[in-house]
Write a structure and sequence with these properties.
Layout (H helix, E strand, L loop, with lengths): L1 H18 L3 E5 L3 E3 L3 E8 L4 E4 L6 E15 L4 E13 L3 E5 L3 E4 L2 E4 L3 E6 L13 E7 L3 E3 L4 E10 L8 E4 L6 E5 L8 E5 L2 E15 L3 E3 L3 E15 L5 E13 L3 E4 L15 E9 L3 E3 L4 E11 L15 E3 L3 E9 L2 E14 L3 E5 L3 E6 L4 E6 L3 E6 L52 H29 L1 H16 L1 H8 L3 H20 L8 H10 L4 H20 L3 H21 L1
Parallel strand pairs: 2-10, 12-21, 23-31
Antiparallel strand pairs: 1-3, 3-6, 4-8, 5-6, 7-10, 8-9, 11-13, 13-17, 14-19, 15-17, 16-17, 18-21, 19-20, 22-24, 24-27, 25-27, 26-27, 28-31, 29-30
Length: 586
């Protein structure tokens, strides 16, 4: 039930988040030149009415508003994005403010944040020329932490708005030695717009890790590297003066800053402190305060909150000796998110009283360190007063009948109740004479059976290996063809769609990706000349090397001249055949 309620609460909170109105303003750059044209966009994630744009004082409005509507489905529901775009032109040097835009949603008015713009002289060089297309950052949520305090390490990617990118890959990351780590599971990357060098970048965390330090000192975790394919301009133009682009693998390194792990203060540390760091609360409940010796009690203790809950020890309880304590039932649940680690731990004790009288379970205490307040917090439950009646409620004693011997035992005798009892065996074991003959014993026949089984297994394995070696050439061909087809899937889709230019782009990526996997080389080092040398060193056949070079040359030519789709069919078959052959050779 608790699991279902947690899932339901997360689902409802997701719906609530998606239901919030997000009305934002955006420009591609915050610094422009006199006479330069640029766009201002206002976007909202809900249907609205009465959109009102700012005055754009200090700029000339060339076009707008250009309204666009886009809808998509995420993990929970269908989302909508409505945008209003204006094309402006800078007129005069200076610093200007583009005021907020307004819109009404469900009888409530929303507004965007104002944008600060700077207009520089026309002859000044644009800062965008030296700004990177994409870059990465390795970030911590805090610069210093206490030992045992959870915090977030994030791999954050930034790329220029409008840049066409492919699937990112983290090729290098630290081991985070000295830290307990747990990855945050996310269904998709949440992107935001951030400005760098006066340019707008899409930014999002590719990976988030909850770290809990286990050692003291200054730590330098190391660096990360993100590899990301992107379509970049070559600086050349085709016959129709259109800019030419190519796919390039961008290698984006980043280093984590040094983080300081501080010791927990010794001043004010409670005696029962066991290392809990964060914000927690405790509850302790008992099922009843009056019970008979033939009854039972349940004591439940629950610790929940946000912090290093996974490493928290539950408080220990001293029970009166008159109670038999069974093995407790422990339940726990925890989750990690962008805000850290949270959850609960719960322990249930089953108590059976064996001695009548009045008893007290002393207050249960739990202590934790709050890093925000930088102090220890001690939680304490109430004391539980329990009255045990020696006479069972279901079968009262008759007048003159002897009372329950356990219920009326001496207090010293209660100490023996929780000890294990060994039962008396009622049947004798099977006896053997010391002079029995081993050759006629069960052990001898068991040994013979084991040897025969091992011999049969060895014969079976010998026949199986012989068959596998006999068919190894056929298996290699099958594996080679499978790898080649996998690499050429995207190229085949473009071929069936009749897109010749896209086909040759994907064909080039498939061939280079194939050799990247087989030779262990980066794409940046696989030029045609270098690839030929690698294939010669690997003793590939000359005709296969020539065919690979021909296919790469056609792919490069297709970006400039535009080959027809008729020739692409034969090139696809040649590529599949040559990659299969080379896979067998390598």
């Amino acid at each position: 039930m608790i699991r279902y309620l947690l899932i339901l609460s997360l689902f409802l909170s997701g719906l609530q988040l998606h239901g919030q109105v997000q009305f934002k303003s955006l420009v591609a750059r915050t610094e422009v030149r006199v006479g330069q044209k640029f766009e201002v966009q206002f976007s909202i994630n809900r249907e609205g009415e009465g959109f009102s744009a700012p005055s754009f004082q200090g700029f000339k409005v060339l076009r707008g508003p250009i309204t666009a509507r886009n809808s998509y489905r995420d993990n929970t529901t269908r989302q909508v994005k409505i945008s209003y775009t204006y094309v402006l032109q800078a007129v005069k040097e200076g610093e200007y403010l583009i005021g907020p835009a307004f819109i009404k949603v469900d009888d409530r008015t929303y507004k965007t944040e104002a944008l600060e713009m700077r207009v520089i002289e026309a002859r000044s060089s644009s800062p965008s020329r030296r700004s990177p297309l994409a870059f990465a950052k390795a970030k911590y949520s805090k610069s210093s932490v206490y030992i045992g305090e959870p915090f977030i390490a994030a791999y954050r990617l930034y790329y220029r708005r409008g840049l066409a990118i492919g699937q990112q890959n983290v090729s290098e990351e630290p081991k985070f030695e000295g830290f307990y780590k747990e990855y945050v599971q996310r269904n998709r990357i949440v992107e935001e717009v951030e400005y760098f060098d006066n340019l707008a970048y899409n930014a999002g965390n590719l990976r988030e890790i909850v770290l809990i330090p286990q050692k003291l000192g200054d730590f330098n975790a190391g660096s990360i590297q993100i590899n990301m394919p992107a379509r970049v301009n070559t600086g050349r133009r085709d016959y129709y003066n259109r800019p030419l682009s190519t796919t390039k693998i961008l290698e984006l390194p980043a280093s984590f800053p040094t983080i300081k792990v501080k010791p927990l203060p010794s001043k004010g540390r409670p005696q029962n402190f066991s290392g809990a760091v964060g914000k927690f609360k405790m509850s302790a409940e008992i099922s009843d305060t009056e019970v008979n010796t033939d009854g039972s009690l349940n004591l439940r203790i629950r610790i929940e909150g946000r912090g290093n809950i996974k490493l928290v020890d539950l408080p220990k309880v001293e029970f009166p000796k008159a109670f038999e304590v069974f093995d407790p039932e422990i339940k726990e649940s925890n989750s990690t998110s962008s805000s850290g680690m949270s959850g609960y731990k719960q322990i249930n004790y089953l108590l059976v009283p064996r001695y009548k009288g009045s008893y007290t379970i002393e207050p249960i205490t739990f202590s934790y360190f709050d890093p925000d307040r930088e102090k220890y917090v001690r939680l304490e439950s109430e004391a539980f007063e329990i009255k045990v009646d020696g006479q069972g409620s279901s079968m009262p004693y008759a007048q003159g009948q002897a009372a329950d011997p356990i219920a009326n035992a001496n207090p010293e005798e209660v100490e023996f109740l929780n000890k294990d009892i060994l039962f008396i065996k009622t049947k004798a074991q099977k006896w053997h004479q010391r002079a029995d003959d081993f050759l006629h014993s069960g052990g001898f026949f068991g040994l013979i059976g084991l040897l025969l089984s091992l011999a049969g297994l060895a014969i079976f394995l010998w026949f199986r290996l012989r068959n596998e070696y006999a068919n190894r050439d056929s298996l290699r061909v099958q594996r080679a063809g499978k790898l080649a087809r996998k690499k050429l899937q995207k190229a085949e889709k473009a071929l069936r769609a009749g897109a010749a230019e896209t086909f040759y782009q994907e064909l080039e990526l498939a061939i280079l990706g194939f050799f990247q996997d087989k030779l262990g080389k980066g794409l940046s080092s696989l030029s045609k000349e270098a690839l030929r040398e690698h294939m010669i060193e690997a003793e590939c056949r000359t005709e296969d090397i020539d065919l690979v070079m021909e296919l790469l040359a056609k792919s490069e030519m297709a970006r400039f001249t535009g080959l027809k789709i008729d020739a692409a069919e034969q090139d696809f078959e040649n590529a599949q055949q040559v990659l299969t052959e080379i896979e067998k050779q390598l």
